[in-house]
Amino acid sequence: MKRMLAMILAALLLLAPTFALAETEAEEPVVAYEFTDDYVLTDDGIVISIKDNPTTGYAWECARYDETMLELVADEFVPAETDLMGAPGVHQFTFKFIGTDGDARIRFAQVHAGDEAVNAALYYIIEASMGTIREVTVHEVNKDDYIELMGEETGDVRLSIPSSMYTHREDIDGSIYLISDDESTRFEIRYDPSADPEALLAEYSDKAKNAAQYDLEDRTQYVMDAERLTDDDGVPYAALSINTPEGLRLAEVYQAPKGGVLFVTMDYYVDFDD
């Protein structure tokens, strides 16, 4: 998926719901985690290795993967080759690639054994064409870096928003606004229980129609991408990204589990004079 500007790639990938990062009651971090992107491509798939230490009470697990593109054939913890108690080992996940073209996503979670609280997560995007893996991208997710919105105000759509991208919240006329201190980033989140999800999913995912509406002849504004997707909770949504003279606009509509539509718009303004 290459529908957003490189400068905010990670932020936009994480704007879409990715993972329910549970809170823990501990005042200090429960366990140090170590992100890795250690993977090896095989003849028919990929082996992903994550440094793991179950003696801390947390362990990495595969939370979800695209079963139409991948088959999980092995899930194994390999202890460290040492007699030292508590030494970390490696958790290896072996996937067989069974798809052809497209993007496959895998989510790994560092989960507490007692209450399933999630301390951190890794998010893999595997791009393939003609039955061969072409590119692997890894994104790190730390629960302390995000706020989660879910419930009546989102129609039960789960949203994880990077906390670094805003400093204050305003609730105006049924919409939630999350705005950064320098006003370079602005989210608008609005739930409409009476909106028609199927019509809006079709509208937002129609790239040609949106290009005809938004593209300018001088290319100072143009539609970057429009696509229909399903989030990690199985909620259908459509994403429309537009390069504007001011920066970037990402507009998404979700088919809310409670009925109706959740609208999420992010504007990222760039000061080109800096």
Record keyword descriptors for this entry.
mainly beta, seven-stranded antiparallel beta sheet, 3 helices, disordered N terminus
Spatial strand order of the main sheet: 11-12-13-17-16-15-14
Q: List the secondary-structure elements in sequence, H or E.
A: HEEEEEEEEEEEEEHHEEEE
Oligomer: single chain
Count of discrete alpha- or pi-helical segments spanning 4 or more residues: 3
What is the overall silhouette? globular
What's the count of strands? 17
In short:
The protein is 8% helix and 49% strand.
Can you walk me through this structure?
This protein is mainly beta. It is built from 3 helices and 17 strands. It has helices at 9-15, 197-204, 207-214, and strands at 38-41, 45-52, 58-65, 70-78, 89-97, 102-112, 118-129, 132-142, 146-149, 159-162, 168-172, 175-179, 185-192, 222-230, 236-244, 247-255, 261-269. The strands form 4 sheets. Strands 11-12-13-17-16-15-14 form a 7-stranded antiparallel sheet, with helices on one face. A 4-stranded antiparallel sheet has the order 1-2-5-4, with no helix packed on it. Strand 6 and strand 7 (118-129) form a beta hairpin. The longest helix has 8 residues, at 197-204. The model is unreliable at 1-35 (pLDDT under 50).
